[in-house]
Structure formats: C-alpha cells, structure tokens
Amino acid sequence: MTQPEDTALVEAEALRLSAGRFVRHVRSTVGQIPPGQAAVLGYLDRDGRLAITELAERERVRHQSMARTVKLLAEQGMVDLTPDDVDRRRVIVAITSPGRDRLEQQRHDRSSVIAAAIQDLTPEQRAVLRSVPAVLDALTERVLAGR
Which tens digits make up the pLDDT trace of 22-50? Predict the structure, then answer.
C-alpha cells in the first residue's frame, strides 16, 4: 500500500524535474544577462537598494563572489554603488535605469518565448496552466513557512 508521503514525494520529484527543465530551457533560449547578474538586478528591482552582504546572503554566495558580480554590473552601468551612511565600510547597491531597462527586456523576451509555446497548447492544457501560478505561490508559501 502506498503511503501519502510516498505519493507526495513522487509528485514533488516530478514537479522539481519538470520545473527545473522548463526554467533551464527558457533561460538558455533567452539569456543575455548571466544568471547571477540577473538575480542581483531582480532583487534590486523588487526590493530597492541593498548592501552587498544582503545580496550575498540572498544568493547564498560568499561576500567576495557577490562583490565581483556587483563590480561587473557597475562596470556595465547597470548598478550604482554608494557607501552606507551609517557604516561607511558597507557598500549599498542600487539598480540604474539602464539596468532596469535591460532586466525588463530580458523578462519580456522570456515571456514572449513562453507565450509562443502556450499558443501550441490545447484548450484543456491552457485551462490547467491558468491555475499553475496560484498553486506554485501556495507551494512557495508552505516551503517558506517550513524553513
């Protein structure tokens, strides 16, 4: 007899593999900004100015690695760096207009690739697809609550 936990584990593994494959293929199709740099721009766009240490924690990388990523973004004019008003040793990173524009273009390009693929789905598949974002959001909340 199959236990409910076993069924959930099989479903979880199928979702993990499918979602991972989907994200990797979309990223490889449209990926002008390297993933680490895109992640930093995304955090800054959503959350505003952040210290390098905060960005490193979010990406679970060493401070030195994040400092290199931020330096590359600054050299491209996609972020501005300023010393923290309270602790002058800390560097605060902010997205620039060119950085936001480039991030928005990549997001648009990825959405366009996905939209084109959606056009090929059956009406039944599209009906199921409309419920996926809400289900993924619910799963995200449960995963975050379980931390």
Answer: 988 988 888 689 989 999 999 999 999 99
